[in-house]
Amino acid sequence: EQQIVLASRPEGRPTRDTFRYETIELDALKADQVLVETLYISVDPYMRGRMNDARSYSQPFDLDAPIQGGVVARVVESTSDLLTVGDTVVGMLDWATKSVVDAKQVRKIDATLAPVSTALGVLGMTGMTAYFGLLDIGNPQSGETVVVSAAAGAVGSIVGQIAKIKGARVVGIAGSAEKIQYLKEELGFDEVINYKTEQIGEALDRTCPDGIDVYFENVGGAIGDAVLDRLNPFARIPVCGAISGYNEQADLGPRVQSKLIIARARMQGFLVGDYGKRFKEAAEQLGKWVSNGELKYEETIFEGFEQVPDAFLGLFDGSNTGKLLVKL
Ligand code: NDP
């Protein structure tokens, strides 16, 4: 079997040399453990932060130790009463082809309800992030204008659709013509901006003639700056991520104090992990919307364990529409 370890701490953008493949021998199962075979590996932007040796909300990855992230796997051996062979589970596991873990470290998923990959996307971490960040902090009202950046990504695509369900007017910002078409034609966004080909300020003026009531921030930098110049009074800004700065050492802003004062706006960072007590509520609601067709989801799937580093790097190139996953 194989695993992927952090070979070096990247300065700036990670490369293939950030990662190293190793052959592993798995331990025999102790009591209350399972041997699982990896089916899907989730690659996520926050993992870039864990590659730095810096204090943050999650521990840095150790050098020369396996990288861990969201994984969907199948149980192939069990000494636990909780799980049997053939069960599908999700958890924070090593980037490995197989793993031995405590049964309590994973959660069983119902493979009859939805494709199991959705436990890493729309019905998992990224869907929950969209749900809580938008509804709890953004609180969009019918007729308001909601702007979302990285709009065609895992979180952004769900944010925009939930905002539509709540009756808002939705403007999505994304980085390619295909994504723009997807947002407009498949997901029904009201307006779309290609930040790579359009001048962002002009494009916001064109698409948000009545100003901006909610900005779901995924990228930061110049896009965040331009949106914050166009806030309506009492705007809300869930600060979910700032991917444009994850590989930079410099602080890219936005610079916000006077903008927040002028608009009496509220900007609030959040972590999906803080909503653990309400995951069931979110999973049920997201599941309902998916099954009644109100909520669509896309996955970009790289095939094969050897593709994991390239898939991760692809997040910074915008190579994904919807959730980026690797299928083993
Ligand atoms: P996505 O599926 O959105 O993938 C990342 C996307 O970001 C890319 O597809 C790309 O799309 C866009 N992007 C990359 N670099 C830049 C750049 N320099 N400027 C503008 N856009 C860029 O990832 P997720 O949905 O998983 O995550 C989205 C954001 O949410 C991230 O910032 C992430 O850290 C954050 N997050 C926060 C959580 C929380 O609890 N607070 C939980 C989960 C995610 P494009 O082609 O449009 O450029």
From TrEMBL:
The keyword Zinc-finger is annotated on this UniProt entry: no
Domain named Enoyl reductase (ER): residues: 15-326
Domain of life: Bacteria
SUPFAM superfamilies (UniProt xref): GroES-like (SSF50129), NAD(P)-binding Rossmann-fold domains (SSF51735)
Gene Ontology molecular function: any one: oxidoreductase activity, acting on the CH-CH group of donors, NAD or NADP as acceptor
Entry keywords, A to Z: Oxidoreductase
PANTHER family assigned to the protein according to its UniProt record, in alphabetical order: PROSTAGLANDIN REDUCTASE, PROSTAGLANDIN REDUCTASE 1
Protein's name according to its UniProt entry: Alcohol dehydrogenase zinc-binding domain protein
Organism of origin: Exiguobacterium sibiricum (strain DSM 17290 / CCUG 55495 / CIP 109462 / JCM 13490 / 255-15)
